[in-house]
Design goal:
The complex is a heterodimer.
Chain A (H helix, E strand, L loop, with lengths): L2 E2 L1 H17 L13 E6 L2 H11 L1 H5 L3 E6 L2 H10 L10 E5 H9 L27 E12 L24 E3 L3 H11 L8 H12 L3 E3 L2 H9 L5 E5 H9 L5 E3 L6 E9 L6 H11 L2 H11 L2 E2 L8 H7 L3 H5 L6 H19 L2
Parallel strand pairs in A: 2-3, 2-4, 6-7
Antiparallel strand pairs in A: 4-10, 5-8, 5-9, 5-10, 5-11
Chain B lengths: L3 H20 L3 E2 L5 E2 L5 H8 L1 H34 L5 H9 L6 H12 L4 H8 L13 H24 L4 H9 L4 H29 L3 H6 L7 H11 L3 H33 L1
Antiparallel strand pairs in B: 1-2
Helix pairs in contact in B: 1-12, 2-12, 3-7, 3-9, 7-9, 8-9, 9-12, 11-12
The chains are: A alpha/beta, B mainly alpha.
Chain lengths: ~350, ~270
């Protein structure tokens, strides 16, 4: 049986678009020239801060930056659809680490020559890999309301504490994160989240409050319905910045990290531009600006945060060393059955 | 001969649907995408799993209730708009259309502000000492229905109004003059004459309800699922395109079948009334 990748299946739908884009005249460039770069990424604050903090030095050199704003699934689809083209329409591609790994496994990313990235030498070793640069990171902490909870909870086990019955907030779309943290508490491993299922069924008896989105969860915290929830420390920082009275603590089991990454398409039209753009993303000043405005921690050692900001969004070396490892291949393989279990058992 | 419109429909509606139909008989590969085979296992999965039956039944039930309620709410308004000779008629029509200028997500956010435990409704009821503890209105089937009805009612009003405008109201007056009560006149004269509008309006609204996505996601509870949300989860969150495609075809088939059956039923009633 032939194995059909996304590329084979969506080629029909996306081919016309890709053809149109690649047929657009592009300037013939010398190897070291960079005139135009297409960056496919998230919209909203992330895109705004790229424009504000990463792109200005490139734009000053006459580089035209063309954003291609999509959600991750659409971005993955587009990249895979163009895989067989000699020249695609995308240069720099952004993904969270799990999706970036999947793109790497699907063979659509170009391999990076880090010697050409002057800022690469500052990349924190734990976030380095061969196929992408880590742009920003955070980790899943326990976000709680100090008005209701005295003393910072130090373990994910707090979500199961009966004194918080009816006060734990859950986002409906976060089944993987919940299975991960339940597996951490319940004796699972990075390649076996199954023990987490039993614990989550126990949690259900504590009547957690379940919300459809981040925003509705924030509303639940604001009105006092939710006292604690797991979330990225960056999110807790932004909530606090927005006026929500929340604090966060790092669980002793080890926080689950999230790294937002960038790489480049194997068939990127503009290799030199990709290198220039990726290097600009690692620039210490730009990274500090992202931290200040978005709450995500720099991934380079030469970006120094003000002490107060470091305390609110950062992780000590010891905490970073203790981050819970993730087996992205295992997650991709089981995601579908987990969703089914989540909907049919946990949420039912 | 194929005209440009036919070619457009073929290229942008039927062909993509055929591609999705082909996906629905492929095999899902976790962590990959799918194998190009011919299998009915995705459809079998749907028919064997009661969870998906429940989701489909919820979708149909919510859609039927919302369609009936919107018809009941829209008919008097459409009738008034059709008969009024007021100079403000255009303004009134604009007011009916006005909610459609706001996106579904924004509208759902508005409902959240109203229906939340600390929302306008609960705060008002508490302030008036009508309730002691906040009512759980948000994240219930009722909240979803309120949200959907607010979206689809303008479509029903406009569809009904266009048909009611064409009715010769002297027939109604004749019935009243001959001694028929207003209710009998409505049931035996107005409603049969307005039946083409009722059929068109209910069909349109029912289809919109069956495909509702944002409102059930934002206003429904954790265990509340309608088909569009389930399809999105399969396609986007787990990359299970074959099963997502199969669910999409099941939804489309059920929607078309129920719409056709309802139309046939109403048309028979309409003809027998003639």
């Amino acid at each position: 049986m032939p194995h059909i990748s996304r590329a084979d299946f969506v080629r029909g739908a996306a081919g016309a678009t890709a053809l149109g884009l690649t047929a657009m005249p592009r300037l013939a460039l010398a190897a070291d020239e960079c005139r135009q770069v297409v960056v496919t990424t998230w919209g909203g604050d992330y895109d705004r801060f790229l424009k504000q903090f990463v792109e200005p030095p490139l734009v000053a050199k006459g580089v035209q930056v063309l954003p291609d704003i999509t959600q991750e699934p659409q971005r993955m689809t587009k990249l895979l659809a163009e895989r067989s083209l000699k020249k695609g329409s995308l240069d720099v591609v952004s993904f969270s680490d799990a999706s970036m790994f999947q793109m790497y496994e699907d063979g659509v990313l170009g391999s990076l020559d880090f010697a050409k990235l002057p800022n690469a030498k500052y990349i924190l070793k734990q976030f380095a890999n061969a196929y992408s640069v880590p742009h920003i990171f955070s980790a899943q902490v326990i976000v709680y309301t100090p008005d209701h909870i005295k003393g910072a909870p130090d373990s994910y086990a707090a979500f199961w504490d009966s004194k918080y019955k009816g006060r734990v907030g859950i986002q409906r779309t976060e089944w993987v994160n919940w299975l991960q943290l339940a597996a951490q508490v319940g004796g699972g491993s990075p390649s076996n989240y199954e023990p987490g299922k039993k614990l989550l069924m126990d949690l259900k008896k504590n009547q957690p409050r379940i919300y459809p989105t981040q925003e509705t969860l924030a509303a639940g915290i604001a009105n006092g319905d939710v006292w604690l929830t797991p979330d990225w420390r960056a999110r807790a920082y932004m909530w606090a910045k927005g006026g929500l009275k929340v604090e966060s603590s790092v669980p002793k089991e080890g926080a689950l990290p999230v790294v937002y990454r960038a790489g480049y398409a194997k068939n990127a039209p503009d290799g030199p531009c990709c290198i220039a753009y990726l290097d600009a993303m690692l620039d210490a000043k730009a990274q500090v600006e992202f931290a200040t405005n978005m709450g995500y921690v720099p991934t380079v050692s030469n970006a120094k945060l003000p002490e107060d900001l470091e305390r609110r969004i950062g992780f000590s070396e010891e905490q970073r060393a203790h981050f819970y490892p993730q087996d992205f291949r295992y997650i991709a393989k089981n995601n579908s059955q987990w969703l089914q279990w989540w909907n049919q058992e946990f949420l039912a | 001969m194929l005209g440009p419109a036919t070619l457009f429909v073929l290229a942008f509606l039927l062909l993509p649907m055929l591609v999705v139909l082909r996906y629905s008989v492929n095999r899902y590969v976790p962590g990959g995408l799918m194998l190009q085979v011919f299998t009915l296992e995705n459809y079998a999965h749907f028919f064997q799993d009661h969870y998906f039956h429940k989701v489909l039944l919820t979708t149909v039930w919510v859609s039927v209730v919302c369609t009936i309620v919107s018809l009941v709410l829209a008919f008097p308004l459409a009738y008034f708009l059709a008969r009024t000779r007021s100079a403000a008629k255009s303004l009134l029509v604009m007011l009916v259309v006005f909610p459609l200028l706001v996106g579904n997500v924004v509208r759902a956010a508005g409902w959240m502000a109203l229906l939340d435990t600390k929302g306008v409704v609960n705060s008002t009821l508490e302030a008036l000492h009508i309730i002691k503890a906040p009512l759980n209105i948000m994240y219930t089937t009722g909240a979803v229905m309120i949200g959907i009805i607010s979206i689809v009612t303008p479509f029903m009003v406009l569809t009904l109004q266009s048909v009611l405008e064409g009715i010769n109201y002297s027939v109604e007056e004749a019935a009243l003059n001959l001694g028929a009560s207003p209710i009998r006149t409505f049931a035996k004269v107005t409603l049969p004459l307005a039946m083409p509008g009722v059929i068109a309006g209910t069909s349109l609204v029912f289809i919109l309800c069956m495909n509702a996505y944002a409102t059930p996601v934002l206003l429904g509870g954790p265990s509340f699922q309608m088909m569009a949300q389930t399809i999105y989860d399969q396609i986007s969150n787990t990359q299970n395109w074959p099963f997502g495609a199969a669910l999409a075809f099941v939804l489309m088939f059920v929607t078309v079948a129920l719409t056709v059956i309802a139309q046939m039923f109403l048309q028979r009633r309409y003809k027998s009334a003639e």
